[in-house]
């Protein structure tokens, strides 16, 4: 097997020169040849897409993202398949495992939590497999920020409150402080900031926001295990959420939503259902 880093470099270089023809030929949601990288959704098996479910049901080998994929989903849809958790395995182990199974004629699926496109590290596995001659593709899923917003019964964009959404993560072992942009997003005022991979660092993140002079009354909601049976919502503000989360004791697997949309207050009726057609709006602006 080619060294995964060399494979990734080679695939990236090839992309710089030639566009992948499959971008033109195939659509998202289409079942294709090779190994699908499937978004399992946030947890509830019902939030797996129909295509994702069909692929998982017919798989012989399911490589999944460990505890972030609900074991109920695995029990319900692929109890007879071989199931392997990717936790603790590097590319050197995962790639030959999936390649060999695929080449021996077994149906292989790679199950990521939420959507593979958000903090999923899917592309590096796909590149390493493609370099070995194994085609891959993505089947999208419901990312946890969307499950959290559904739990909070809000919209991440909300007229008059939030015009933008940021999917972000806090500084830590894998992100340098200068690459932590949470303060900038919050400072923009009309952004709903969804913090992934930051449950353990909510206190420090809020302290930094306070030190930088952000409004301590800015709403923050933390949704632990959105869509799971043990889901819990902890609500507060930049000034209070750190202590509340500390009391609740969650250190992982939560979505932190910062901004007024988390509280669904103060929004304005949108043009769309307010005489929009009479204001000269175009069809493309009306897409909802
Ligand atoms: C490695 S990232 C994977 C994100 C995933 N690809 C997605 O689209 O949701 C893991 C982080 O996603 C968030 N997360 C995943 N599942 C969640 C859930 N059910 N409820 C809340 N947050 C979740 C947490 O912030 C967790 O630290």
Automatic annotation (TrEMBL):
It comes from Halobellus limi. Residues 35-241 form the Tetrapyrrole methylase domain. SUPFAM superfamilies: Tetrapyrrole methylase (SSF53790). Pfam families: TP_methylase. It comes from the Archaea. GO terms for biological process: cobalamin biosynthetic process; methylation. Keywords: Cobalamin biosynthesis, Methyltransferase, S-adenosyl-L-methionine, Transferase. InterPro entries: 4pyrrol_Mease (IPR000878), 4pyrrol_Methylase_sf (IPR035996), 4pyrrole_Mease_sub1 (IPR014777), 4pyrrole_Mease_sub2 (IPR014776), Cbl_synth_CobM/CibF (IPR006362), Siro_Cobalamin_biosynth (IPR050161). Transmembrane segments: none annotated. Residues 1-42 are annotated as: Disordered. GO terms for molecular function: precorrin-4 C11-methyltransferase activity. Residues 16-25 have a biased composition (Basic and acidic residues). This is Cobalamin biosynthesis protein. Belongs to the precorrin methyltransferase family.
